[in-house]
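FORM 7B: Structural annotation worksheet

SECTION A. Query
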Amino acid sequence: MSDEQTPAGSPEPGGSGPGTPGPGAPERGGPEPAEIRFFGTTWVHHDGGYGLRRAGVSVGSLALAAAGAVVLRFAFQGLEIAAVGPFVGILVVAGFAICSALAFRRTWDGFVRRPDPAARSAADTSSQGLMLIGFIGSLLAYFCRSLVEAPGERLHRAEYTAARERYERRRGTRTGNPAAKQSRPKKRR
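SECTION B. Predicted structure
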């Protein structure tokens, strides 16, 4: 059968087509790795252009941070033209610096640990404005983390490894087909 006649989704003979898992892919029924923004699941085996994606994320986040700094500079020049005084200028610069530092820290913590869902409160939702103002800090955190790994990769890898281990333990403790044991008729004495 030629390539044109092969039905879509059917595996190639002796190869791995769209219907069969590739080498190292999770087995059917097992836990699936979570996707990371801009990386998908390439972080699992560092394949599919993982290095290029990391480089692209690094360059892109740094370029966006630089563009954001230029926009903020234009805003600051607008304040100078308005002659609002040095005190307001200092407040604006300090406000953006503090918001950027807070955004950097919050973004960095999001790469390291999962936030506790019970701890989500009104304070978390009200701090979204700070994150918006401090977008440069968030972009810089993305840049710094992408120099080392895909942002959030370590957290996702730990969760995926733990899920695989739980799955393998559950699967290893079973012997035979549990459904077949339940359907077997009981012996009468």
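SECTION C. Observations
Residues 1-27 have pLDDT under 50 and may be disordered. The CA atoms of residues 63 and 69 lie 10 Å apart.

SECTION D. Sign-off
Analyst initials: ____
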